Amino acid sequence: MDEIIKTEFNNIDVTKSVSIPGRNGLMICWLNNENDYYLVDDNGGKQAVSDYLILECFSNDFGDLPKAKSVAIISNTDFYKVFTAIDSQSGRASKHNTDIVDTIDSLLESAVVAGASDIHFERNDQVAIIHLRVNGLLNKVKTISAESCDEMMFVSYNILATTKESTWNRNIPQDANILRELPSGSYRFRYAHMPIFGKSGGCYHAVLRIIKAETIQVFDAIDSDKNPLEIMQLTPDEDKDLQAIMQAPHGLLLITGVTGSGKSTTIKNVLEWMYSKKYSGNACFVTVEDPVEYKIQGAIQSSVVRLKDGANAFLPALKSAMRRDPDVLMIGETRDDQTATALTGAIESGHYAVTTVHAGSVTTAIQRLESLGVKRDRLASPGFIAGIITQSLVPLLCEYCKVPHSINDLGHKLFQKSEQGCERCNQTGASGRRPVFEMLVPDLNILQEIASGNPTKVYKCWRDKHNKRGNLNQGYLMKEKIFLLVMQGIVDYQWFINFYGEIEDSMLREMDEKISNQ
Hints:
Radius of gyration: 28 Å
Oligomer: single chain
Number of strands: 21
Low-confidence stretches: 42-66, 215-221
Structural class: alpha/beta
CATH architecture of the largest domain: 3-Layer(aba) Sandwich
CATH superfamily of the largest domain: P-loop containing nucleotide triphosphate hydrolases
Mean pLDDT: 82
Shape: globular
């Protein structure tokens, strides 16, 4: 630093000054006649050598600050004047924070009422754009100042978050969980942000995933009449395949799909069916999740925060779970070779395990496991894979305002959403989403092709299954199943074309036959 200077109380702008947490006698002060922050020390400048270190720590807690060019030394009397003034400022800051919390809650409530699954904040150099993801599509709702966005994220992370890492810092990726009691109910918001490119260096993208917080309760009795699988809207053949997967005595149920495709909901429904129907409540279900999203009936659930230093927090939690005598083990996501190795050990020791990976189809999920270090001979071993499910959430047309599509040469009346929408769908043209599934239950033919290490043959062997039964069973692609919904007038034809491309003649003929046989 350039110099150590002396200053007096009247040279300090106390409205911008703050004390450094845990550093008695040290403050960051803004001088009235300068444009830089200074470190003020009440002890004769003896801690001046710590200037850069302290500012670095402060920056980690509160965001960017320029390095101090010099250290200002003030008398003890003036020091306490500054400290008292900062205390007074903090009282006003508390009121300001309360106002920000009200603003945040208002935004969260409006997102919940709109049926949003996520809230996006794209903070650029001057402004921040807020989007809501409703029925799978991002919709811009408002633009606010960059400073307002920073305040909202700062308060959300530092004040509202229940689990987090240190304090908010826009310059590094961070995650947190926020619990809020809103007028429409209790909700958990999964927070994540990442710095992005911008001229100022303070830009970031933050997302709040909206999760309905279920009441934590003790299930004293099993509801034998309840079928948790009904919400999945399975076809008869899909239900038959899923039953075969769940009734396996041991093995791996692998659920795949992109972020926001409903994997956690499917896991909840599957585990609750197994607990109530397969085991009649007489079983130990243990989960290791990052974090717990839904309360699962009968399950002993644990949240594990993945560490940023590269250490595998899942590994000790998974080992503990295996030592606690589980009948069924659920791992929220398998994303590294250590977790995959531990998972393999659990399956080979006779456990039934459920986990997720990011993969685009049931056959590429097998390659994904192999890339995580699961040996091919294990994957091809009978009983190792109980089944694989890939899923997607598809937006449904509003039945009250959908309009016919101009295309009429496919032999069916196709529909698209109304641009204006209606009151029933909040002017969106859509009415919720439904899951669509691909399923794979491995037989000896598929296992032989897995052992051969030829993904193309695995795919062909799976595709051949769709000719062997009459309904939408194994072997049907996600694209084909969604197109059937298009032909039934449930899904927007134009949306399908945008996401899946043109329709092949063979697909059209086959789906037409399916409709005719219904």
